[in-house]
UniProtKB/TrEMBL annotation:
Lineage: Eukaryota, Fungi, Dikarya, Ascomycota, Pezizomycotina
Membership in a protein family: Belongs to the oxygen-dependent FAD-linked oxidoreductase family.
MF terms in GO: FAD binding; oxidoreductase activity
Keywords on record: FAD, Flavoprotein, Oxidoreductase
Protein name: FAD-binding PCMH-type domain-containing protein
Alphabetical list of SUPFAM superfamilies matching this protein: FAD-binding/transporter-associated domain-like
Ranges where the FAD-binding PCMH-type domain occurs: 35-208
Organism whose genome encodes this protein: Talaromyces proteolyticus
Record-linked Pfam families: FAD_binding_4 (PF01565)
């Protein structure tokens, strides 16, 4: 069997063969160290032909191909992995007439936003600029208040182009006449990991001017900071902002005070309310609610600013850092009662007390949005697998620790807080739900898709990735 260097010599692939002394972080860019080991080989293609060569090599060597773009998902990399680093697929091509953009397989949210804003456009973005657009849409793509205007990221996708596991270059779009291609398109929108190496995909774009923002690009942001002891009062106020008006994004973020704060490590609650429209509208919605309560009296600090559109990624900058064992544990619900949010907050606080290694950066968030557009899009895009389009509430425990021995306690916390956050829906007979974008293995698949969806998803995977050459989360038991 050929050695890798001579195998790839006739291609434009770069290859890296890590050894036991290679620092994994210097060769793979990755958000979390969970499930991260040395791969058999890293292949960095420049062209589709390079990708086809990588597929042939992986077949010869019995390796699993894992495509990598933003590196923000917890997916397994080990000595059976051919890590296909798509970093060179950075095309961004705007079509103003059709109001679409073609996005290379590794383009990040921030790169796309920066480019689109030059033409006065935007699309549906994650809350992290470092996440790739391809990775975002493959698991659905919830986009905060932008989803209250344009639905999910998958609702805005019009076509995918890429290389199949059999080495065929294909393009599939929403109006594909071949039922096999149409089914592939639909499943790529929401359950698409491991079906295609996406070299580019196209999305709808929207005019920023239509949002009617102050100074053309400024979002209205009200921010209050509270000590942890007033969690009940903060949640009572938050509930008054529900059901959330379109374009509004109220969010509770629970963090630990930084080392230079008067009480380092103390629980702090940041309540932010962002409005994706003119400040006059925002004030009309928020100010009367504030005036009808005592909320300002409990705040340590408060400010109202006009923040540039690009600031939507600022909130997650701290959590974007690479390294450490990190994961997201998200619960999507119809409602959270005040006592549920307070119980979840107390469980988060307890984690910091019991596991000092996880205290500084494990954060807990709760937010709501208006799901009308997401629900309406679902009536049209009914084959794109995404459950619970009517669930307007999100709770997310982001865990971050550094010592392997903290794992058991952190996992217990993740289970507990997820159960707490699902208890109100569960009492009303609703099953739990999460975001497929946060799957770490197949243990939560039933929280991302219905049984009927899973039948369709598995059928499409059996056609396009029959021998699991591409890493497939549905087959990943996490062991
Ligand atoms: C801080 C943070 C914030 C986030 N915010 C949001 C959010 O607001 N909304 C939301 O819905 N999700 C969010 N996510 C989840 C995120 O969208 C997913 O984890 C996404 O899959 C990450 O994509 P990536 O390319 O960055 O990661 P990677 O680990 O590089 O890729 C993730 C998966 O997608 C596959 N993949 C990526 N690119 C390609 C491609 N071109 N072709 C084929 N397969 C590909 C990979 O093989 C892998 O299975 C967030 C995650 C983090 C860590």
């Amino acid at each position: 069997m050929q050695d890798p260097r001579s195998f790839f010599a006739s291609t434009t692939n770069e290859i890296i063969i890590p050894t036991s002394t290679t620092d994994i972080h210097s060769v793979i860019t990755r958000w979390s160290d969970e499930r991260l080991q040395q791969p058999a080989i890293i292949v960095i293609p420049s062209t589709r032909e390079d990708i086809i060569a990588a597929i042939q090599y992986a077949r010869q060597k019995n390796l699993t191909i894992l495509a990598g773009a933003g590196g923000h998902k917890v997916v397994p990399v080990n000595d059976k992995t051919l890590y296909l680093d798509l970093r060179k697929f950075k095309k961004i091509e705007v079509n103003r007439e059709k109001a679409t953009v073609e996005i290379g397989g590794a383009v990040t949210n921030l790169e796309l936003m920066t480019e689109l804003l030059k033409d006065g456009f935007y699309t549906t973005y994650a809350n992290s600029g470092a996440v790739s657009m391809a990775g975002l849409v493959l698991g659905g793509g919830f986009c905060g208040a932008l989803s209250s205007i344009h639905g999910l990221a998958i609702d805005n996708v019009v076509a995918f182009e890429g290389v199949t596991a059999s080495g065929e270059v294909i393009k599939v779009d929403q109006s594909a006449s071949d039922p096999k291609h149409k089914a592939l398109f639909d499943i790529l929108c929401g359950a698409g990991y491991g079906l295609l190496v996406i070299t580019s995909h196209s999305m709808k774009i929207h005019k920023l001017s239509a949002l009617n923002l102050d100074d053309t690009d400024k979002l209205w942001v009200r921010k209050y900071t509270f000590p942890g002891k007033v969690i009940g009062e903060v949640v009572d106020f938050f509930q008054k902002l529900l059901p959330v008006k379109p374009k509004l994004m109220p969010l509770i973020l629970c963090v630990r005070a930084p080392p230079n704060a008067p009480f380092p490590g103390a629980p702090v609650i940041i309540l932010s309310i962002t409005y994706y429209g003119p400040s006059s509208e925002a004030s009309k919605i928020v100010d009367p609610i504030v005036a009808s309560t005592d909320i300002e009296k409990f705040a340590i600090a408060s400010e109202t600013t006009l923040a540039p559109f690009t600031s939507i990624f600022d909130g997650s900058k701290m959590i974007d850092a690479h390294g450490g064992f990190k994961a997201q544990h998200m619960s999507r619900a119809h409602s959270f009662s005040t006592s549920t949010i307070v119980s979840a907050f107390n469980r988060w606080k307890q984690l910091g007390e019991e596991v000092p290694d996880a205290r500084a950066f494990s954060v807990f968030l709760v937010w709501g949005y208006n799901p009308t557009a997401t629900i309406e899009n679902g009536l049209v895009n009914d084959k794109r697998p995404f459950i619970g389009r009517d669930r307007s509430m999100f709770g997310n425990a982001i865990t971050w620790y550094n010592k392997p021995e903290s794992k058991a306690a952190v996992e217990k916390y993740a289970t507990d807080i997820s159960e707490i956050l699902q208890q109100d829906d569960s009492r009303q007979g609703y099953p739990g739900a999460t975001l497929p974008n946060n799957f770490r293995d197949n243990s939560k698949v039933h929280l991302g898709y219905t049984d009927d969806m899973l039948v369709d998803i598995r059928r499409v995977h059996a056609v396009w990735n029959p021998d699991s050459l591409f890493y497939n989360v549905l087959e990943d038991s996490g062991t």
